[in-house]
Amino acid sequence: MPASVSFEPLTLVDLIRYGASRFNAAGLSFGHSYDNALDEATQLVLHALHLPHDLSPVYGQGRVTTEEKDAVLALFQRRVDERIPAAYLTGEAWFAGLSFKSDARALVPRSPIAELIEAGFEPWLGGREVRRALDLCTGSGCIAIATGHYHPDWDVIGADINDAALSLAAENKERLLAGNVELRKSDLFQGLQGEVFDLIVTNPPYVTDDETDALPREYSFEPELGLRAGFDGLDLALKILRDAPQHLSEDGLLICEVGEAERALGELLPQLPLAWVEFKVGQMGIFVVERHDLVEHHDAIKRLADARA
Ligand SMILES: C[S@@+](CC[C@H](N)C(=O)[O-])C[C@H]1O[C@@H](n2cnc3c(N)ncnc32)[C@H](O)[C@@H]1O
């Protein structure tokens, strides 16, 4: 503890406003967790000042010390110069009301599936009994761990092909005391032979090759394995649709995110009844499908999936 501190004439709000102006002027991309400059600047200021993310606005008029100002400006500088996503700078991302460790081993948690988890997957589950759930392509473990957190009586498995992502997921499992979550290494369903789930949730890679090549610099810090998914973004989603029936219980449900590949999927399989989830901000490329519909349309799905590498 220093014997004395010198305060700047600046408040927290001044720093946040300054950061947001610099971020906008620099043309940063805000596709990771926060979608605007003010929220990102707020996140960085609170992190540098060791303050809680839900700090009461009354502290916004508090003045900062010279040391604190320097720490904030150094973070702003890295965000602008290096384009590192804010969550990787702070090492933390919030998802479904929980704080996850976030670093370059896995994508920054940001899926709208968080909203479904917090709603208990209703109305989609519609009273189905769930004992076992799978989060395929778990990355940081955010979907598996948040699902396990809100459903302590479910057994949840989080699976990913990437060892680095799984090591981050393991740290998050420990951080959030997720005793009912098990992590597995698996190439899609290959490491889950003979296993059956009442609910499969997945946010697989779904960015087209062209879009992946054109993404803003921020995305280059994330593992490409979590993004790239072929010419139309459906390489992995089609295989998941093909193989899910073997791993779903009789009236099981698959919930899958395909983002902007929604349109391509609708064109490839117009007859498959997919229910596109409406979020507070509209549709976000997430569908729900029942096992029996996947079985009924299996031949058409298999033809398309088998044609992918
Ligand atoms: C879009 S990220 C989603 C991560 C996490 N579920 C989330 O919502 O933040 C996709 C994940 O799929 C994993 N992945 C890519 N190909 C895979 C495969 N063949 N089998 C299993 N996981 C795979 C990547 O390692 C990455 O972690």
Automatic annotation (TrEMBL):
It holds the Pfam family MTS. GO terms for molecular function: nucleic acid binding; protein-glutamine N-methyltransferase activity. Signal peptide: none annotated. GO terms for biological process: methylation. Keywords: Methyltransferase, S-adenosyl-L-methionine, Transferase. InterPro entries: DNA_methylase_N6_adenine_CS, HemK-like, Ribosome_uL3_MTase, SAM-dependent_MTases_sf, Small_mtfrase_dom. PROSITE patterns: N6_MTASE. One of its GO terms (cellular component) is cytosol. This is N5-glutamine S-adenosyl-L-methionine-dependent methyltransferase. It comes from Lysobacter enzymogenes.
